[in-house]
Amino acid sequence: MNQSSNMKRRVAVYVIGLFLYTLGIALTVKTDLGIAPISTFPYALSFITPFSFGVTTFFLTIAYILIQVVLLGKEFEKRQYLQIIVGILFSTFIDFSMMLVKNIQPEAYMSRMALLIAGSFVLAVGIVLSVVPDVITPPAEGAIGAIAKRLNKNFGNVKIAFDSTIVILAVIVSMVFLGHLVGFKEGTIISIPVTGFFVKWLLKAFKGKLEKICKM
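Request: output the structure for the sequence above.
Response:
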């Protein structure tokens, strides 16, 4: 019974984290300063393919899973294939989060920048809450974790490098196929180190407490 109770708590924390993850993305979209780095590439792809933003995001989910399989080999747990289901849930949460923030329309530049920082923080909280319970790793974070493990590097630092790579790919795709940037502005660049800093700080400050809540 104890094990069942612990798993329920871990799943609850995980689902809350996944929702906050998408809410953070939705908030950065509303700033009109550029979307969250992790979403720039699939967003750009949605403009040059017949697929929607949600579908291109799901394609990236499959790519992230493949990265984990290749880097972790036998260490990749079979249950992590459920990340495919997480990808579907993630897309649903994105739509719901966008509906929640639809009336948020900051006009002043400083207000938009403040919302960007707030969105980056919410995104970081979502990342931490969805990673620490060790239920099903969010696909992107799973890929980052696999890279960090293989390179023996800090997760937060790898997160910054990974997000930077995604943004570079988005810029290349946008300029080559569209001739202009899509979803990428100064806010995207700012949010890369900001989100990475928040993730590192939150892990350092709250990882132990979260593990106690989940009784891992």
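The chain is about 75% helix and 0% strand.
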